[in-house]
Amino acid sequence: MAEAAAASVSGPWLPLAGVRVVDFSLFVPGPFCSSILADLGAEVIKVESPGGDPGRRYIPAQFRTENRNKRALALNLKAPEAGDVVRRLARAADVAIEGFRPGVAARLGIDHATLQRHNPKLVYCSISGYGQTGPWRERPGHDVNYVAAAGGLAFPGQWRKPPVRSSLAIADLGGGSAAAIAVLAALNERSRTGRGARLDLSLFETAFFWAAQRHSLDAAADPKAHIFPVNDVFETRDGERITLGILEEHFWENFLRIAPELADERFASDASRRANGDALSERLEAVMRTRSADEWVRLCEANDVPADRCLTPAQAAELEQIRARGGVVARGGERFALFPVQADGGRRTSLRRGVPTLGEHSREVLVELGYDDEQVVALVRAGAVKTG
After folding, report:
1. Helix, strand or coil for residue 84?
2. Element (H or E) spanning 261, and its range?
3. Distance in angstroms (rounded) separating the CA atoms of residues 89 and 368
4. pTM value?
């Protein structure tokens, strides 16, 4: 019995196997949402225009990481012949995702009302900058706009530095994550009710939700309540950057064994360290420049002080912790980070497909939808479909 139980949980963790997703979205948020679903086992068809997702050109590296594990169908949604393809895609899908400005999906014939007529059980998710309703619904924007308007650039991330933009697309990636959560919740609800759902996700509201969770909605919120002078980024003697994560008192006491020159009555408690934060931050900057990053990491590890270098993702991929947990997988000469959750004591998602070229699976998908070779050729000749 024990051996049978162990065998039943072997292999990759693909809890969404059998779920079918058609993704009409572009750039980052929608593709990131569907990449999460694909990593978890869903069958995702990426629908692009014959010119391709602009993300292929704007940020090629991110396009590739967000579109592995998918199949690609190049479909001209403006062509009259596309309507029947969309109908068949909708009937075969559990989930549809679009990421256009409000009104565009309807003009392309892929709006909720149209697709629901083909499949009442469809979970339909719209991802837009400001949502499908409200005075800002048609306002243009990108991640930096949403984050700024939501409060995400109001407060600093370091003790003596002004607010700066992260290299991570906070609203786009956060919105894609929230969309994936909402899709899964809607699928769970459908299993009880038999009904589909219409989801309206705002990237601006995602950033607002995150900022409000971090800073509250109190107009008098302390702009430094979330930062600490000893929980910051510092430059070392050799020009590298290292982070200290000192919050709890025992970590501060441990750090004083390494840097006794910081033993000062003004820094004796968390309250006094914050009250004298500017002086402490300046002193810390000087102290951290007295040793190399290697020395600091070695000393901090030996004395139980939270400290890490500021690495690139490529450098992080080489860390023994990532290797030990199998967080990176290679395919076709490329490396990809896997979904960051293990199940059943070590099962992870898998990389089942690489990154599709434009229209690579057009013929394959169309045949699965019931088109014969002659009909596929007719669609290509009409300019409705492009094959890879």
Report:
1. helix
2. none
3. 10
4. 0.94
- 113's tokens: 């009302």
- Spatial separation of the C-alpha atoms in residues 91 and 88, rounded to whole Å: 5
- Give, in degrees to the nearest 5, the angle at Cα 120 between 36 and 90: 55
SS3 382: coil
What is the domain partition of the chain in residue ranges? 17-215+357-386, 241-309, 317-352
Q: What residue type is 279 in one-letter code?
A: A
Q: How is 325-349 classified by DSSP, letter by letter? A: TT-EEEETTEEEEPPS--BTTTB--
Q: What b-and-e string marks burial along 364-380, b requiring 16 or more CB atoms within 10 Å of the CB?
A: bbbeebebeeeebeebb
**What pLDDT, in 10s, does the model give residues 139-164?**
999 999 999 999 999 999 999 999 99
Q: Which residue has the tokens 């057009």?
A: 362
Instruction: Tell me the β-bridge partners of 21.
Output: 44, 95
Helices 29-39 and 170-193 cross at an angle (nearest 10°) of: 50
Between residues 4 and 224, the one the model is more confident about: 224
Dist CA 187 CA 194 (whole Å) = 9
Report which of 5, 65, 120, 22 is spatially closest to residue 351, judged by C-alpha positions.
Answer: 65
- Helix ranges (H only) for the chain are 2-8, 29-39, 55-58, 60-66, 82-92, 104-108, 112-118, 143-150, 170-193, 203-215, 249-258, 270-275, 277-288, 293-302, 313-316, 320-324, 362-368, 373-381
Q: Which CATH class is domain 17-215+357-386?
A: alpha beta
Tokens found for residue 42: 């869903």
Per-residue model confidence as pLDDT tens digits over 336-364: 999 999 999 999 999 999 999 999 999 99
User: In whole angstroms, how far apart are CA 383 and each of 17, 67, 193?
Assistant: 33, 24, 40
| C-alpha gyration radius of the chain | 25
Spatial distance between the Cα atoms of 262 and 247, rounded to a whole number of angstroms? 15
328: left (phi over 0), alpha (psi -120 to 50) or beta: beta
**In the numeric block, which tokens belong to residue 250?**
């025992």
